[in-house]
Design goal:
single chain, alpha+beta, H-NOX domain, Arc Repressor Mutant, subunit A, 2 domains, five-stranded mixed β-sheet, AraC-type DNA-binding protein
Length: 344
């Protein structure tokens, strides 16, 4: 289940009241506790937040609701991450901090650097990702990408040099609303959502930054992340328990750990491994145990390891050890083999 801190709903109540409505019934109708309007650190299911914003925009006939919310967000929307960002040395430092610690604010959202889609010299792109497949939650996307722009304005000033905006969806509001908000050209229906910014932003210092505050903020943020070494062990434990039921989808393991699949992938990547590699290693170790320490039939071993067919298990054995399962079983100590036959 993908979540976001309740700070992500900032501005919602204010906008709704300005439009003459009461936000609390809307929040309840979305299956959320009204406490999310006042307590920034409460987790909100991302899909419920997106549905709330979309329903409110439709009911109140306010197609630019997401942009209005973004305009009301301060950097402190990001909680402890805001302290680190405000005290980073440069734009590159702030981007690296965002990539690493944005998961503290939401385990679904991701911002990273990519090449400029127009290939313009001196320009790079900041890509915004994280919402699930399916119809785009336009209001939530408007609020999220709009806040990314707002954060850059707060760190580097309104004239930080935004060269253009690409949005991967069709606009809910009049395109002129987007141009007024971003003060830059906006193109819709693009392959990815991103902001085109000058590459000199990476070397630009953050005004008023204090390195000691940055370091203390990062030390605290580290405590909020699940230790990466322990993460590998926790994933291995979950996978080991699920194999007996068949194939182990990464999404199922992520759910068991209350993580978004992309967050799980990023944390494993930071350790130089992948979900597929963990599953493969567990299967290999378990296969060696079943083949050399038990008399379990090959078909049963295959099923216990979550392989759909015994032939697939056999191919895996060839990949692991260069021989079929029967050859691996033949390597059992002779005394153990004699004991197994005697007690069979």
């Amino acid at each position: 289940m993908a979540t976001v801190r309740a700070a992500g709903i900032r501005g919602f109540a204010e906008v709704v009241r300005e439009l003459g409505a009461d936000p609390e019934p809307m929040v309840r109708a979305a299956g959320l506790d009204v406490a999310v309007l006042d307590h920034d650190d409460l987790p909100i299911e991302q899909s419920r937040l997106a549905a709330l914003l979309q329903r409110a925009a439709d009911d109140l006939e306010c197609p630019d609701l997401g942009l209005r919310m973004a305009a009301r967000h301060g950097l402190d929307t990001l909680g402890p991450l805001a302290v680190m960002l405000a005290n980073c040395r440069t734009g590159a430092d702030a981007l690296a901090a965002t990539e690493r610690y944005l998961t503290v604010h939401s385990d679904a959202l991701h911002v990273d650097r990519t090449t400029d889609p127009d290939g313009e010299p001196g320009v790079l792109a900041l890509r915004y990702r994280g919402h699930p497949q399916g119809p785009p939650p336009v209001q939530a996307l408007d609020a999220g990408i709009g806040f990314l722009h707002r954060a850059l304005c707060l760190l580097f000033g309104d004239g930080y040099g935004l060269a253009g905006v690409r949005l991967s969806y069709r606009p809910a509001a009049d395109p002129a609303c987007y141009r007024r908000f971003y003060r830059a050209p906006v193109r819709f229906g693009a392959p990815e959502s991103l902001l085109r910014v000058p590459d000199r932003l990476l070397t630009r210092p953050v005004a008023g930054a204090h390195e000691d505050l940055r370091d203390r903020a990062e030390a605290y943020l580290r405590t909020l992340l699940i230790d990466a070494d322990d993460m590998t062990g926790r994933i291995s434990t979950v996978v080991d328990g699920m194999l007996v039921f068949g194939a182990v989808p990464m999404e199922a393991v992520a759910r068991a750990l209350a993580l978004h699949p992309r967050t799980l992938q990023r944390r494993l990547a930071a350790q130089g491994t992948t979900f597929a590699r963990i599953v493969d290693n567990i299967r290999r170790d378990r296969a060696r145990h079943y083949l050399t320490e038990t008399t379990m039939p090959f078909g049963a071993v295959s099923a216990r390891l979550g392989f759909a067919e015994q032939a697939t298990f056999s191919r895996a054995c060839h990949r692991w050890w260069g021989v079929p399962p029967r050859r691996v079983r033949a390597t059992r100590p002779r005394a153990r083999a004699r004991h197994d036959r005697a007690t069979a």
